[in-house]
Write a structure and sequence with these properties.
Layout lengths: L1 H13 L10 H6 L4 H30 L20 H23 L1 H7 L10 H12 L5 H29 L11 H16 L13 H34 L1
């Protein structure tokens, strides 16, 4: 349970897709002029990441890894299909995005029209593919953690675009200097928000003190070193005295 909580909060605040690794910035900047639009796209990203990351985990575990095909028989254990990772991951993502597009168009035509081209472009959003690739490189051990990572990464991206959309709606009525209006002030706010999110990195460091058993082992090793040093000094002193007497 603690492992799930740590992964959840780390993916949202510490390893945020936007502020930590700068993925999905094109949609983040283009669809963040209104909060309503940002909420719709953010919800779509959460859904797509929450579905595609565990699906791609299954593909990686039972199809793509070196020796993953051993469940088909011993003769398949030597096959390595990892070179197909990008193709299969993108195919899974494109399928889910198409499903989202159909649902949004059916139940919310106004949101579908406001999102425009950026809804189908979720399929090539680097944050979506990045979630699956990070899952693969970090070697997440089970599908439960993969689902957790997908949803929490999506929530992190959702919070980022929701925050910048709310700020952009407010500064629309502010006296922003002419050279900074538009994307200029947006980049500055994004940088400041990134610095703020990085400050969350200290909340998951845990207890820095070593366990009691480790402390005892360290103290014992230090004591043994001191005894060995005393014996060595005494042997040197005896050798020196013998040399003088001769």
């Amino acid at each position: 349970m603690l492992e799930h909580l740590e992964l959840f909060f780390r993916s949202i605040f510490v390893d945020n897709m936007v502020f930590a690794v700068f993925l999905g910035m094109c949609s983040y900047l283009a669809v963040s002029k209104k909060v309503s639009t940002a909420v719709g796209l953010g919800a779509a990203v959460i859904f797509v990441l929450g579905v595609t990351v565990p699906l791609n985990w299954l593909l990686d575990k039972y199809l793509l890894q070196d020796g993953a095909l051993a469940w088909l028989g011993p003769e398949y254990a030597e096959y390595d299909l990892s070179f197909l990772s990008f193709i299969l991951f993108i195919a899974t993502i494109a399928t889910m995005v198409q499903l989202v597009e159909i649902v949004v168009e059916k139940f919310s035509p106004s949101l579908y029209n406001s999102l425009g081209i950026f809804l189908p472009l979720i399929a090539v959003n680097c944050a979506i593919l990045g979630g699956s690739l990070f899952m693969q490189t970090r070697e997440i051990p089970n599908i439960g953690l993969a689902l957790n990572y997908g949803i929490s990464s999506g929530i992190g991206w959702f919070l980022a675009i929701l925050a910048i959309a709310a700020i952009r709606e407010k500064i629309r009525y502010s006296n922003v200097p002419a050279p900074l209006r538009g994307l200029g002030i947006t980049f500055i706010i994004t940088g400041l928000m990134g610095i703020g999110f990085q400050s969350f990195g200290g909340m998951l460091t845990g207890d820095n003190e070593p366990p009691e058993e480790t402390q005892n082992t360290t103290a014992k090793a230090q004591e043994e070193k001191e005894i060995e040093k005393e014996i060595d000094d005494k042997e040197k002193a005896i050798s020196y005295n013998e040399a003088i007497n001769k």
